[in-house]
């Protein structure tokens, strides 16, 4: 299964760490974040990969050229950021008409991706994507999802004061080929996946809850937590 890793963000919340290094290359326990993603996904039989770049793109290019993943990664430079959905839509041909992974690669997780793919394969018939979810200690800072008894999304609550639970959207998705086709037609002008795409498919999004560590490393505090995690 092919995967798009969204890695072009400027990492403004993580400054001053990201003043001189792109967020996707910050080190966690001695390894660049992007390397952790590529290593774990490859181990699960996922690939090849498309990675978008923007901020300090030359550093990402240099890293990939010198890495063991160089033959399995295609880099796409965006002089202006296209948005999380915009990048996906602009590169639909990469997926060759098959199901695909869409990953916001500014997170850190030890999730089992083989189990995630298996859950997608067992999803209810009407579901057009599978979303990875996790339990958060700070639900007011996350997108919280409500599920029915089958694990299908019936509601979203984006960073609200009193969310109905702590099950968060991990912004890691497996998208069916049919959904990708629709993105290229009915939704071809959207830019943001979370705010402009997801709400169209309430009732058609299956979920897989990872019990493993899942962290947004967007701030120095959460970045430190990732480096100190077990």
Report on this model:
By secondary structure, the chain is of the alpha/beta class. The protein has a single domain, classed as Spore Coat Polysaccharide Biosynthesis Protein SpsA, Chain A (Alpha-Beta Complex). The chain has helices at residues 33-43, 57-65, 84-90, 113-121, 177-183, 193-196, 220-228, and strands at residues 2-6, 27-28, 31-32, 49-53, 73-77, 100-104, 107-109, 129-135, 143-147, 153-158, 167-175, 205-209, 214-216. The strands form 4 sheets. A 7-stranded mixed sheet has the order 5-4-1-6-11-8-12, sandwiched between helices. Strands 2-3 form a two-stranded antiparallel ribbon. It is globular and about 45 Å long.
Widest sheet: strand ordering: 5-4-1-6-11-8-12
| Helix and strand sequence | EEEHEHEHEEHEEEEHHEEH
Stretches where pLDDT is under 50 for at least 5 consecutive residues are none
The CATH architecture can be given as Alpha-Beta Complex
Span from first to last CA? Answer: 29 Å
Largest sheet: 7 strands, mixed
Query: Would you tell me which CATH topology applies?
Result: Spore Coat Polysaccharide Biosynthesis Protein SpsA, Chain A
Molecular shape? globular
Indicate the CATH class: Alpha Beta
**Coarse structural class:** alpha/beta
Alpha-carbon Rg, integer: 17 Å
Beta-strand proportion: 25-35%
- What is the average per-residue confidence, as pLDDT, rounded to a whole number? 94
């Amino acid at each position: 299964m092919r995967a798009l890793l969204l890695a072009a963000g400027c990492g403004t919340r993580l400054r001053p760490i990201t003043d001189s290094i792109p967020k996707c290359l910050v080190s966690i326990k001695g390894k660049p974040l992007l390397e952790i993603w590529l290593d774990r996904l490859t181990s699960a039989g996922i690939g090849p990969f498309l990675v978008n770049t923007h901020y300090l793109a030359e550093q990402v290019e240099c890293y990939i050229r010198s890495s063991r993943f160089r033959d399995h990664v295609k880099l796409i430079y965006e002089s202006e950021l296209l948005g999380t959905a915009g990048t996906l839509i602009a590169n639909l041909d990469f997926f060759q008409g098959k199901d695909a992974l869409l990953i916001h690669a500014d997170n850190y997780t030890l999730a089992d991706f083989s189990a995630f793919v298996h859950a997608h394969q067992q999803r209810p018939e009407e579901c057009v994507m599978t979303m990875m979810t996790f339990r958060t200690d700070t639900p007011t800072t996350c997108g919280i999802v409500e599920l029915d008894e089958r694990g299908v999304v019936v509601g979203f609550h984006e960073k609200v004061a009193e969310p109905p639970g702590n099950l968060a959207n991990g912004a890691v998705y497996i998208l069916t080929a049919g959904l990708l086709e629709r993105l290229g037609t009915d939704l071809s002008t959207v830019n943001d996946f979370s705010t402009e795409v997801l709400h169209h498919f309430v009732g058609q999004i299956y979920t897989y809850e990872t019990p493993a560590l899942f962290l947004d490393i967007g701030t120095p505090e959460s970045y430190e937590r990732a480096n100190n995690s077990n």
